[in-house]
Amino acid sequence: MPLAVRIHPFAAAVTAATVAAVIHLRRRRSHIKAMGSTLLVLFAKSTEELKLAQSLKLKFENTNDALKVSEEEKEVKVQLGSDVGPDCQVNFGVGLYMDSLVATRFGRLLLWSPRLSSTHDLVSKNFHELPFGTVCITDIQFKGRGRSKNVWDSPLGCLLFSFTLQMEDGRKLPLLQYVISLSVTEAIKQLWQDKGLPQLDVRIKWPNDLYLEGLKVGGILCTSSYQSKFFNVSAGVGLNVDNEKPTTCLNAVLEKMRPNCSKLTREEILASFFNKFEELFDIFLNEGFNVLEDLYCKTWLHSGQKVVIEEKIDGRSIQSEVTIKGLTSSGYLLATDEQKNSYELNPDGNSFDFFKGLVRRKLE
Q: Quick check: 191 and 197 in contact, CB under 8 A?
């Protein structure tokens, strides 16, 4: 049995940044009734991945090896992209995506569905059946996981995907979500540069949110299990590309900056993400996060931010101010006070706003 492992000591709180919750649309507390048949279509970049797709289809058609899905998805119909008939409209430009993809290990086998409860659940429940680097994407997601078991909807216009990867070094595992966040912002930067579009200043809000013009437009979710000396990681990303409610989206900001300019597409962003992630992930594994930290800190919102820490000392509430300087080696916030003492800041696990529930530990 694999051992479930949390990506970070505050991973339970991080689940609030799950793909659907980040899009921040409509919270539903009532149980969702069971769906009908769920369609899952397999697409491949090359002949090698096509053979994997064909093997997966045969495997999932076997009752004993059926795809593991949520209770809302009682029946899953698996098809190859080449077998999709005219009655099925694939609302994802697979050709554009594959033509834009140059990554050699990630995103080359793609699972698309028009509607899923959660891409993250599908990937994590079937991790050992899916080839390394497989990505699952859906147009609509109706059961994203949030805090306190809240359920979230993510409608059309959002880029919603999860993918698989493995790591050996558990010390680096807490920092993976930062590499993924940085890959998203760098992918978007690469696209607006290549397409001659206005600069979209997507920023990172620690630990795993994406912001544009002061509003949340996306987020990251990483979960893992440990088995046979490897951490099996399911990584999920949600990004508001075309749906501007209730906050904003990438293309709405582009339109405001330059009316009638070309739009960013989910296909281009996803391909650009994997191209960039593969590059940054290799650097991260081989050289460590410290090589990427300067770029990360230029992209996040917190350098020089003042934070008030409230502590209980002898029954009294004492407040002190510290300044955020960067990240510690374990992935928490590094801060200093007026006396130049260094502290590691981490959330208390209870506060909805990470920066209103920080606990500090003095560093020697």
A: yes
Q: What sign has the CA pseudo-torsion 58, 63, 69, 73?
A: positive
Q: Per-residue pLDDT tens for 227-266?
A: 989 999 999 999 999 988 788 999 999 999 999 999 999 9
**Cα–Cα distance, 125 to 155 (Å, whole number):** 23
Quote the pTM value. 0.87
Say how many residues make up the chain: 364
Residue 6 to residue 163: CA distance in whole angstroms: 17
pLDDT in tens, 53-77: 999 999 988 766 788 887 777 678 8
ω into residue 207 within 30 of 0, thus cis? Answer: yes
Torsion of CA 307, 308, 309, 315, to 10 degrees: 180
Residue type for 118, please? Answer: S
What is the spatial distance between Cα 219 and Cα 233, in angstroms, rounded to a whole number?
16
Q: C-alpha distances in angstroms, 133 versus 109, 122, 199, 277, 278?
A: 7, 14, 30, 11, 10
